[in-house]
Known about the structure:
With 246 residues, the chain is α/β, with parallel strands linked by helices. It has helices spanning 19-27, 36-45, 60-72, 93-101, 114-121, 139-149, 162-176, 199-209, 230-245; strands at 3-7, 30-33, 52-54, 76-79, 106-109, 129-134, 155-161, 180-185, 193-198, 215-220. A five-stranded parallel beta sheet has the order 3-2-4-1-5, with helices on both faces. Helix 6 crosses helix 7 (162-176). The chain binds S-adenosylmethionine (SAM). The site of S-adenosylmethionine (SAM) has 24 residues, from helix 5, strand 7, strand 8 and strand 10.
Amino acid sequence: TPALYIVATPIGNLGDLTMRARDILASADLVACEDTRVTGKLLSAFGLKRPLIAYNDHNADKVRPTLLDAVRQGKAVALVSDAGTPLISDPGYKLVRDAAEAGLAVTAAPGPSALLAALVLAGLPTDRFLFAGFLPPKSGARRTALGELASVPATLVFYESGPRLAASLADMAAVLGDRPGAVARELTKLFEEVRRDPLSALAAHYAEAGPPKGEIVIVVGAPAEQEASADTLDAALRRALAGNST
Ligand code: SAM
């Protein structure tokens, strides 16, 4: 059926491609992807060969109308990323926005995302979380960005690269305080590793061990809940009692 399909692909383990994702890719008239070589390899691993078109930060504004026209003309267009779920620190939101605005059908084939895989392995509360994507590469801008997140009462999730990991963790410990954290690496792959420790210990570990290989997600616990002081409690109690007696 003609539509724009947002299709999640594996973040390492090919077994994670869903059956529905495979079916959609197998019958897509056009597969829009970040890098045609990366997606070409993925398709051939499943014995598929489909017309590919690059859709990335360099050409998105030019290619977007082409993709929308294809759907308008009755084609099934699939959008994939190099890995994981499109639009999550990856291109695609403007394509979805414009397709929806044009009244075209848009549907998702959900599946792997490093964000959720790391969150569920971190051992931190999952009822409220904020995904903050990649932090700025330079420490000054990174600390400013972290400052904006410091009071958010939720678990925080960041994408990061090996070379910047130790410095980012040190900035987190400095700006957010020494909260519990987790570093998830190479998820779903052979050398999957999750290290759970306070931010300062994680920072010290990676400063000492050197930059780890592979892809990384950092998960950080929410700020400790402010304990109500005895004075605050007393005042609240007096207010409540006063309210009841009148
Ligand atoms: N859209 C993707 C998703 O849904 O996970 C994320 C794309 S983003 C450009 C790539 C980043 O995701 C990496 O730098 C890393 O932080 C994280 N990532 C991707 N695959 C990973 C894996 N197997 N293990 C840990 N982190 C991963």
